[in-house]
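Collaborator request, handled under Task 6.
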Amino acid sequence: MRLSPRASGFLVAALTLAVDQGHKIWMLDVFDIAARQPVALTPFLDLVMAWNPGISYSLLSAQTPEGRLGLLAVALVATLLLGVWLWRAQERITTVGLGLIVGGALGNAWDRFAYGAVADFFHFHVGGFHWYIFNIADVAIVAGVGLLLYESFFMTGTKNETA
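Structure tokens returned to the collaborator:
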């Protein structure tokens, strides 16, 4: 049985959310990263514990309950709009990309609801360069945006356009 593009997108969203939340539960409650950090995985990648009270790079940091609720509301509205786009999309690459974004956004929104901040664990660094600390949801969001950009730039002539 082959899934429709819409079903594929929603399945990817659900799997992304499950993997992200499962990883966070394991890192926080089983592995206890807060007590073990930093854990060097490679010379350029460590596991650490960081709580992000804002959005990317801690922008719009929300320290109050009202601020956290505001960020949660914005995230849920954006996710709802992306879900509508996913529902209407016909191309599998679009629905998979949107599914990754929706699943990642829901994973981070759940953290904001449950903990008041987003749990991040992966710290990438090379020499003196330090990338921001991220989680699986962030990776999914970036991959989803990458798929949408790829489709936009390289697959525009392959779609079945209807006017």
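The cover message to the collaborator said: "The two ends are 31 Å apart (CA to CA). Residues 5-153 form one domain. Please let us know whether this matches your experimental observations."
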